[in-house]
Structures are given as structure tokens and as C-alpha cells.
């Protein structure tokens, strides 16, 4: 009986030591899981923060102006599309639009197509794309595939105000001078275009903004021969 007592105490101590080791391992495992969870939460929070900040990162084009007399340098304010544009500016845009978008030359056709798209509303751009589609028999690519060209010269721009007071309509008179491939003579026809226009916020895309920095938009466009010319072709 006396010999079994120390042995029982030894087993009891060993069992207590094993229990302490098991409890320590469980605490270590819980701590490891807590640290891992905290790390994952930090990672997820960082990703969410970066995703939230991404819309704030954008490129803002600007123009630096240097006074030729004093040498003072300043930044030209960027037009935001909220001020009323002078009539002279609208007249320039209409003249430029008609000159570029109604002409045709194979050397500049692709560039002219893209530049005109920078001035279109979404609806007008759909009609523009359909017009230039190679499957359209009336496409300029098909009408002048023999190497012909069309030159445009604007004669006048007139503005109209609606009864509601809204001034968003203009009529542009211009002439088209068509030349056949290898031909020396130009065939001139007179046209009149009715244009509905508007000003919107300028595009953020620098490629579009370099063509259209003020957000001028052609909402609707209709052109027809000014005189009855059976050989003249109507524009969309």
C-alpha cells in the first residue's frame, strides 16, 4: 500500500502535465487561427479600400500658359461644359464639322471618320456608323471606291431660336465639289443642312478631347440638295 502511493502520485503528476500540454496546444492553435483571421481581414479591408479609391484616380489634361512678355506661368482653366458658348464658337464648330464630315478622301477617310465621331451624340453615332458600313451601298467607301474625292466649302451658317426660347438649331449652306478618279473637272452641287446641336461636358478621353475640347455635340443632322439636282446624293 505504501509502495503504490508514490506510483499513484507519479501517474497523477504525469497526467496533469499531459493535460497542461494539451491545453497549451489548444491555446496556441486558437491564437494562430485568430492571427490568421486578422491577417485575412486586413487583406480584405485593403482590397476594398483600393477598389474604393480607384474611381478617384484619373488623368486630368491641362494647358500651361507662359506670358511672352513677363514670363509668368499659369494653368489655363479646363472648360467644364457649363458656360454658354459664344455664337462665334458654335459657328466655328458647325463649319468645321461640315467641312470634315461631308468631304471624302481616301488618305484622310479613317481620321475624318474618327474625328466626326467625337462630335456626335450616341444616336447620331449609330447613324454615322451605319452610313460608313462597307455593306451599305451608299457608304462613301463604296461611292468613291474608284479613287474619287469630295471637297466641301461652307458658304453660310444661320441660327434659329425655337418658340420656347431654346437656341439649338442651325442651317448651314455649303457646296460639294466631286472629282472622279483621274478627272480634272469638279462637279459642284449646292446643299443645305439642318443641324440640331448641344453642348455637354467634354469627354475625359484625351483622344476625343483634342478634337472636341468644349463638348460640342451634333444631336441631329439632315442635308439635302438646295437645288433640284438629280445627280446629287442626299446625306443622312
3D structure, described in words:
The mean pLDDT is 81. The chain has helices at 4-53, 87-101, 109-117, 122-132, 140-143, 206-209, and strands at residues 63-66, 73-76, 149-160, 169-179, 186-199, 216-225. By secondary structure, the chain is of the alpha+beta class. Helix content is 39%, strand content 23%. It starts with a helix and ends in an 11-residue tail after the last strand. β3 (149-160) and β4 form a beta hairpin. The strands form two sheets. Strands 3-4-5-6 form a four-stranded antiparallel sheet, covered by helices on one side. A two-stranded antiparallel ribbon has the order 1-2. It folds into two domains: 4-56; 81-225, Nuclear Transport Factor 2, Chain: A. It is built from six helices and six strands.
Number of helices: 6
Beta-strand content estimate: 15-25%
Estimate the helix proportion, in percent: 25-40%
Structurally, how many domains make up the residues? 2
Please give the order of strands in the largest beta sheet. Answer: 3-4-5-6
What string, H for helix and E for strand, traces the elements in order?
A: HEEHHHHEEEHE
User: If you average the pLDDT, what whole number results?
Assistant: 81
Named CATH architecture of the largest domain: Roll
The computed structural class is alpha+beta
Structure in a nutshell:
By secondary structure, the protein is of the alpha+beta class. It has helices at 4-53, 87-101, 109-117, 122-132, 140-143, 206-209; strands at 63-66, 73-76, 149-160, 169-179, 186-199, 216-225. The strands form 2 sheets. It has a 4-stranded antiparallel sheet, covered by helices on one side.
Amino acid at each position: 500500500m505504501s509502495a503504490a502511493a508514490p506510483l499513484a502520485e507519479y501517474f497523477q503528476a504525469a497526467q496533469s502535465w499531459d493535460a497542461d500540454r494539451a491545453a497549451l496546444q489548444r491555446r496556441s492553435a486558437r491564437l494562430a487561427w485568430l492571427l490568421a483571421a486578422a491577417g485575412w481581414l486586413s487583406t480584405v479591408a485593403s482590397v476594398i479600400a483600393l477598389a474604393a479609391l480607384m474611381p478617384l484616380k484619373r488623368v486630368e489634361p491641362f494647358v500651361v500658359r507662359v506670358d511672352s512678355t513677363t514670363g509668368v506661368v499659369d494653368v489655363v482653366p479646363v472648360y467644364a461644359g457649363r458656360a454658354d458658348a459664344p455664337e462665334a464658337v458654335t459657328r466655328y464648330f458647325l463649319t468645321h464639322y461640315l467641312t470634315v464630315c461631308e468631304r471624302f478622301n481616301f488618305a484622310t477617310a479613317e481620321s475624318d471618320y474618327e474625328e466626326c465621331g467625337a462630335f456626335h451624340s450616341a444616336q447620331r453615332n449609330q447613324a454615322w456608323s451605319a452610313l460608313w458600313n462597307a455593306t451599305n451601298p451608299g457608304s462613301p467607301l463604296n461611292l468613291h471606291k474608284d479613287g474619287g474625292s469630295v471637297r466641301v466649302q461652307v458658304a453660310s451658317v444661320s441660327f434659329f431660336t425655337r418658340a420656347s426660347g431654346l437656341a439649338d438649331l442651325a442651317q448651314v449652306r455649303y457646296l460639294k465639289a466631286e472629282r472622279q478618279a483621274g478627272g480634272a473637272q469638279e462637279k459642284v452641287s449646292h446643299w443645305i443642312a439642318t443641324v440640331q446641336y448641344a453642348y455637354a461636358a467634354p469627354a475625359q478621353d484625351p483622344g476625343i478631347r483634342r478634337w472636341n475640347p468644349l463638348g460640342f455635340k451634333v444631336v441631329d443632322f439632315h442635308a439635302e440638295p438646295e437645288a433640284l439636282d438629280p445627280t446629287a446624293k442626299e446625306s443622312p
